[in-house]
Amino acid sequence: MINFHYARANDVTDAVRQIGGDANAKFVAGGTNLIDLMKMDVERPTTVIDITRLPLKQIERTPDGGLRIGALVRNTDLAYHPLVEERYPVLASAIMAGASQQLRNMASTGGNLLQRTRCAYFYDTATPCNKRKPGSGCSAIDGQNRMHAILGGSDACIATHPSDMCVALAVLEARVHVASESGDRVIPFADFHRLPGKTPQRDTDLDGGEIITAVELPPKGFAANYTYLKIRDRLSYAFALVSVAVGLELDGDTIKEGRFALGGVAHKPWRDQQAEAALRGRPAKAATFARAADALLRDAKGYAHNTFKIDLARRCIVRALTQAARGTPQSQSSKKIV
Amino acid sequence: MTSYIGTATSRVDGIAKVTGAAKYAAEFNAPGLLYGSIVTSMIAKGRITRIDPSAAVRVEGVIDVLTHENRPPMADDDNAYKDEVAPLGSPFRPLYDDRIAFNGQPIALVVAETSEVARFAASLVRVDCEEEPHVTDVNRDAAVPVKSPTNPFEALFAPPKTRGRPEQALAAAAVRHAGEYYVPIEHHNPMELFAATAMYEADGRLTVYDKTQGVQNVQRHICSAFGIEPEDVRVMSPFMGGGFGVGLRPQFEAVLAVMAARALRRSVRVVLTRPQMYVLGYRPAMTQRIAIGASKRGTLEAITHDAITVTSQHEDFFRQETGWSGLLYTCANASYAHKLAKLDLPTPCDMRCPSAATGVYALECAMDELAVALRLDPLELRLRCYSERDQNNDRPFGSKALRECYRQGAEAFGWNKRNPEPRSMRDGGDLVGWGMATGVWDAFQAPITVRIVLSANGHAEVACATSDIGTGTYTIMAQVAADMLGLPLENISIKLGDSSLPQSPVEGGSWIAVSVCNAIATTAGAVRDELLRLAKQVPGSPLANIAPGEVALADGMLVGKGDPSRSVSIADAMRHGAVDRIEQEKTTSPADDPARAHNTHAATFAEVKVDDELGVIRVTRVVSAVAAGRILNTKTASSQILGSVVWGIGMALHEETLIDHRLGRVTNANIAEYHVPVNADINDIKVIFVEEPDDSNPLGVKGVGEIGIVGVAAAIANAVYHATGRRVRDLPITLDKLRL
Ligand SMILES: Cc1cc2nc3c(=O)[nH]c(=O)nc-3n(C[C@H](O)[C@H](O)[C@H](O)COP(=O)(O)OP(=O)(O)OC[C@H]3O[C@@H](n4cnc5c(N)ncnc54)[C@H](O)[C@@H]3O)c2cc1C
Ligand code: SF4
Questions:
Q1: pTM of structure
Q2: Architecture of the structural domain at B142-186+283-444+595-738
Q3: What is the DSSP letter of B14?
Q4: How many Å lie between the alpha carbon of A32 and the closest alpha carbon of chain B?
Q5: pLDDT tens digit sequence for A94-112
Q6: A22-51 as b/e, with b when 16 or more CB fall inside 10 Å?
Q7: Alpha carbon distances (Å) from B460 to B481, B488, B568, B582, B583
Q8: What CATH number is given for B18-22+30-133+190-273 in this structure?
Q9: How far away, in angstroms, is A207 Cα from ligand 2 center?
């Protein structure tokens, strides 16, 4: 861990001014990811700008009937917010599937989006890792890759994005509001996280000088037919091997609109137009779900230790779509899979 | 008289622990305390060619950087580093020379005025190494047979002799099963980080607060490593946040803290980081092959058990991994083989029920597979080959109530409702599986010394250098002392975890409860005898011509056993004798009883529910029935078994230290990524203690710290088979291995 300066930002303008003037500065919100990485010498900011006093803690209705979630809303507060529980239960469920109560109490909405991969090599400065040290090589491709990507990886990196919350946000087609000294912009969720390509050091579309101010949810919440199904190596407090967030709009037994995103399988929450097209207008039954799963996994590629994820993902997709269609979403407290 | 022994007495140190009054090794302070941060190697094997601390030294607040180049002198003879439980070989010595023997090896200590500065400066120490090829993966071909024992301690671990003609008997058996089973490296992961605070006293003496299971073991180690006299070092460990075996041998935090304190003549604290905890000892990975031959009736004809376990290049660590297979069941022909794979890793060490947890796992899975082959209920198979004698040494047991464990455990579990067919039991989309397994462990007793000081006001101090590693030793010592001295529990104060107290072995092997409690009973007897001597001198003493065996201490009095009206109070006896305290110190040794075997036993029954599409496993019920002699405290003993069962669930489903063999480096060296069970993984666990009278020691006690884990992983693996029809022989059973 290196020595660093501590600074505090008073408002958004102050925060972006401070970060804009210092390429080696980092914001800290809940600190549950940044501080860990600093202790491991992976993140080495010379200044840490505390943004926890910024007025970004509100959850408000938007004029179009959606919801605007301040970047500093804690994961726990978001998951238990009555409007979220009622209208966006897939988001509440995904958050509750992640981390532990203590971590969720600290973690912020913005920080959750920006949490970094849990690839063991990324965390260990004794090993090569293109994401941590561009050009040093990827230790995972020929090493331990049980937790790694089966979709969208590159020769440079096969890390996964570890967030559960983001998988639900992908299904909900959230919009990320960011601000910087040069102005504000809104990023569609699908464009927020990147694929590794040749520059795995860049996880997102966010620029060094930008701050996330809010995450906006469009009105459509799929409250009737949704689920978040997470499969992991123990029944709580572990990152996903595979997770699936689903939102369905049904017309009787026919799927009017079906969205589903996967966590734990790629560098970003994974959605696939072709797979979702395979749901549209079709009967909500196993054969339909299986076709959609096959479509999504058509280019899946396994490595020495994670090939099992392809078949697991297929089964999870079918099961999750079944749960959503039946209106029996997965409970995050009872560990029996419905 | 017994009023505390056998009850569910709450921990006497419970309030101190929950209020934070109980202090742990890293919580003791001294004026001007310095903080040490350890720099570790990033290669698995080689030589340090250059170590450059200059950037670290320049940081404000850094006092010194210790390396092999500038450390104070240390002994150069292996024997100086041998400790009470050291295996054969050459013990690791921190900062000794330029050799790197394992990845993560401590190679420098940065000492600074704050821990933050020390840690920052540690990241600035530049180390250049010359790397050499390393091997960290079990290489079967290169494994070597374990060496013959050179002393009685080592003899405990030598594979038993072959009996009968196992190969022929196996070939001739009507039904055979052979299988290969694997248990990976596992780490102890106690909550408390290893830490030592070495207090440098004005006269140069040292008081070292260390996290250890053996204060005297550490004291001797430090004395011989640095050439210090015993009276100049005192080692203390009043409380421990989990040991599980990793604190049995002196660890390098203590050596480094002492090294820095002596070099700088200041008090120094060294605390390991969580990743650094993964270069302490570990449970050695074990690959093993078991073959069993049986008659059609389900009696055993032959059993062979071959194992390879992992050790370091510098020491041969191994335990009795194979011998359990020939001990447990009646079988005329048995053979064992045990080889070591010597790797570029730290030396393994004892971890809760070392050898039995892994060896019996394989045996009990193999027995289950045999039961399937015989179309016999797995419990019925165990009963058909039940053994009343220790098969390895052909001798009776001091006591063995395993049959009762089977009976009571099966009844509590409802075993008789089991449908033997795999995949036959269901709960909605879940496949339900029921499995069982036997557990066995040693009932050791070790020489130990206890001092009791009884004051005229009816308070007693009981002292012994043993440790309470969280198991409840303070509490059971107080219970036994209170009963033996006839005093209320509140009048007993326990002193332990201090090297200046009477002799104790390390706290391990489940031998402390039986050893220290019997020693308390003996010493209390000596106190009673001395009191009786004084009481007889009281004018007109009602106890004038009574024999020592005919009096007991009760309610602050010496009382005639046959005639309670004959009594003298402790206060009166001491007043007339003109003494205000009675001090007695006695050493007890285990009765030399080679004619009988001394073991604890258990039967575990487990229920799993497995999602039939996704393979997610939930352990929904466990019943553990234990026979471990007389239970001193039902509450703390149950907690030991509960904790063991939880650990067994982790062993079955979660635990595995991952090593990238290209780098020779642990890749999940933290407790987010090294999985142990969390609350969600644990459901209903029922603990049963069956009656087991035993006269091997006066109190009839055996230890319960370890037996609870043995067989749990097998019971779960067997239940998973019963649920799914899939036999997974390498642990942990993760859902990808099920391939449903
Ligand atoms: C042991 C463990 C287990 C976990 N398990 C899970 C799990 O199962 N599922 C899961 O989803 N998550 C899990 N997490 C991750 C957890 O969800 C994240 O650590 C958390 O969401 C990060 O939020 P934070 O506010 O603490 O971020 P911080 O650590 O404060 O920040 C993270 C990053 O975001 C940046 N940042 C923060 N806020 C902003 C902002 N407003 N604008 C711009 N940049 C910002 C910081 O500079 C930093 O780079 C786990 C974490 C741990 C430690
Ligand atoms: S997968 Fe990505 S994060 Fe992991 S080692 Fe390779 S480059 Fe680094």
A1: 0.97
A2: 2-Layer Sandwich (3.30)
A3: H
A4: 12
A5: 999 999 999 999 999 999 9
A6: beebbbbbbbbbbebbbebbbbebeebbeb
A7: 8, 10, 18, 9, 10
A8: 3.90.1170.50
A9: 21
